[in-house]
Structure formats: structure tokens, C-alpha cells
Amino acid sequence: MVEKSLKGSETILLVDDEEFIRNSGKELLTRFGYAILTAADGEIALDICREKPGEIDLVIMDLLMPGMGGKKCLKEILLINPLAKIVLASGYSPDGMASEAADIGAKGFIGKPYQVNELLTLIREVLDH
């Protein structure tokens, strides 16, 4: 059972080239009160960030995507909004990725496939700090 304290009402931009991840993530996070925007790649994510400055509370972004990957997109988002809260995600081995993510400005790292409690806990930790 998921605690009520893991719910929220903030706006999250979910960026992943896998449609299943975007759709299932949106469905899950919407159930917990979040407003979800999705983008299939880094370029679309940047467009959304430019169109909605100040409206996106958190970005959860796949590290490895075709075209503009997560690292490059993270740097570009931080140029648009230096205070942006970004969590990087990857289905590859997390060894060293969490510290690398922090080094380039991410507020967190999560492995895929997402574990519900882990994802919701990380979202609250990042949003609340």
C-alpha cells in the first residue's frame, strides 16, 4: 500500500522514447494526483519547457534516447530554468549513474522499470527539497 504522503498535485514532465513507459507512467502518476505532460524525446521536452516556463515542477527523463539524449537535454533545460528539478532514469545498470547524474545537475536517478514506491518516494523527496 502506498502512503498518502506520496501523493501530490504538482506538474511533472515525463520524457521517454518508449511509448509504454510514457503511458504507464502518466496513468500511475495521475492516480496519485500529479498533472502529467509527456514528451517522446529531448527536443519535444525542450519545446514544452520553453512553452510552459515556471509551470513544470519536475522533469523525469530517460538518460538514453534517440536524438538528444538525457544528458544534453538536462543541460539545455537548466539553461532555460537553472532551478529546474530533473530526475534521470535508465534501464541500464545504475552503477555510478546516480553520482554522474548529480554531477551534471540532476536532483536524482531512478532505475527502470520503475518500482512504484521507489518512484513516488523519489518524486516527493525531490519536490519537497
Strand content: 15-25%
Strands side by side in the biggest sheet: 2-1-3-4-5
User: What's the overall geometry?
Assistant: globular
In whole angstroms, how far apart are the ends? 24 Å
Topology-level CATH name of the domain at 9-91: Rossmann fold
Strand count: 5
User: What's the CATH H-level homologous superfamily of the domain at 9-91?
Assistant: Response regulator
The biggest beta sheet reads: 5 strands, parallel
Order of helices and strands: EHEHEHEHEH
Q: Which structural category do the helix and sheet elements fall into?
A: alpha/beta
Mean pLDDT: 90
Number of helices: 5
CATH architecture of the domain at 9-91: 3-Layer(aba) Sandwich
Low-confidence stretches: none
- What portion of residues is helical? 40-55%
CATH class of the domain at 9-91: Alpha Beta
Rg from alpha-carbon coordinates: 13 Å
Short description:
By secondary structure, the protein is of the alpha/beta class. The protein contains 5 helices and 5 strands.
Question: Which short descriptors sum up this protein?
Answer:
5 helices, Rossmann fold, 5 strands, 19% strand, 129 residues, single chain
How is this structure best described in words?
The chain is α/β, with parallel strands linked by helices and 129 residues long. It has a domain at 9-91: Response regulator (Rossmann fold, 3-Layer(aba) Sandwich). The protein is built from five helices and five strands. A five-stranded parallel β-sheet has the order 2-1-3-4-5, with helices on both faces. The radius of gyration is 13 Å and the shape is globular. The mean pLDDT is 90.
